[in-house]
Write a structure and sequence with these properties.
- The chain contains 13 helices and 22 strands.
- It is an alpha/beta fold.
- The protein has an eight-stranded mixed β-sheet, sandwiched between helices. It has a six-stranded parallel β-sheet with strand order 3-2-1-4-5-6, with helices on both faces. The protein has a two-stranded antiparallel sheet with strand order 7-8.
- The protein is elongated.
- The model has no long low-confidence stretch (mean pLDDT 88).
Amino acid sequence: MLTGQRIILGVTGGIAAYKTVLLCRLFVKAGASVRVILTEAAKQFVTPVTLQTVTGNQVYDELFIASNRYTVEHVGLAQEADIFIIAPATANTIGKIANGIADNLLTTTIMATTCPILLAPAMNTQMYENPLQKENLAKLSSLGYKIVGPEQGELACGDSGRGRMSSPEDIFTEAVNLLHKDKPWRGRRVLITAGPTQEALDPIRFLTNHSSGKMGYALAEAALELGATVTLVSGPVKLTPPTGVTIISVITAQQMYDAVLACFDNVDVVIKAAAVADYRPATTSEQKMKKSDDDMTLALIRTPDILAQLGQRKQQQLLIGFAAETDNLREHALGKLKQKNLDLIVANDILQEGAGFNVDTNIVRFFFRDGRERQLEKLTKREVAHELLETIDELYTKK
């Protein structure tokens, strides 16, 4: 989601500096290039070697040093950055920046920076509440600096109060929001479901299907890249959700129903890519069911129809469904489109090679509410996700 983005991470001398290792990993995992500037005090808490290993890039810590990359180190770093983050940002560094003091590589680079700047303050509660510190933060905020945190909680010094640095995940999310502020889906709230559900027969066995969740997860990642705020309701899968998405993990159809309905009123677009079990056992044994010589008859009852319920409740939302079929694809897809009150349905014949479960490709056809149809060739699920989101964008713009 951050491929090609260039991040400068300034680390100052606070105990929270150790958390920057995880923050770097989040950015690198998202595809960004991270270059770290360490102050002398920061090196008391985290080493240049550690951060160089995590980022794969040189760590910068001296103002006057020969450089192989830049003629003037601080100017080159500043011009390269898409975003500049300082985490932790100590009261000392905040005070220097607010008053134009540039006496080390970090503060000098900040003075030459024109990209968005994000500060994650971290300090003792009394220091944070100090009027001078408050004035410095307010001044920087008025100048366009973005502030994340600090949080309330127990501090390293033993005190409890506001001053703890925000979590690496929260800093990452705020940075993504800044980088995506000009993205076309900025401000849109998207709810996506993915994966199968599992309906228990006993503590060992359950009813499920072959869904891997790959299509839904590809959609979540693509929506994040476009700048959307994404909530992913996921059944049991062996996939790692994209960093920056709000993940709600569920197991049963009823749990997915409850999670989706709880989010529905506060979203703009819903994409139901999950393969939800239509039936569940009428009873679930508390003990393992033993074999016998007799045949077993299993009673099943319907699970809640999530998509139909959303179709009844929808107001301003765009509602997109998926239909995995084995025959009469067009007939079944159009029936579902009408019955569930959808704006668009994405249908595929899972018997086609490259279009079934547990593969990285798909062959889909779009059926629109206005009667239009569009057939896509075999594409990766990531490519299908981008095609679908582009189509949804057209529908959203026309609403």
